[in-house]
Amino acid sequence: MTHPITVTIAPEPSRVRVLATQGGQDILKAVLGPAATTHPRAAATLLEGLALWYHQPLSVVLCVDSSDDSSALDLYDGLGLGRRELHYEVGIAASVRRPRRRPLAGLGDFRELRQMSLGSEWLR
Question: Is the model's pTM score more than 0.85?
Fold first, then answer.
């Protein structure tokens, strides 16, 4: 039996962080450009490609906050509900931004995305 894949997406003003996990293991970590500058289908295409790569639908957690950086990703409808597509289902989670304590090397800190993905059991 394959483990479900959870993709947590956190759009911020200057970047979009993506964390994909399967069976407690990270399978993808990415820091992408800002959502405001992306193609309207970029997020959907990324998720569809990942689902096709692993031959299974994805559970997606979209972290939203008051800055509304997530609207450019087009992953929820006009009522604020997450989209449900053939390759993925999106759940919405409220994100609370915390100030950074110390700079991290590499791709940065994904701890809060990991916490958001742990609460995604309701998607399955």
Answer: no
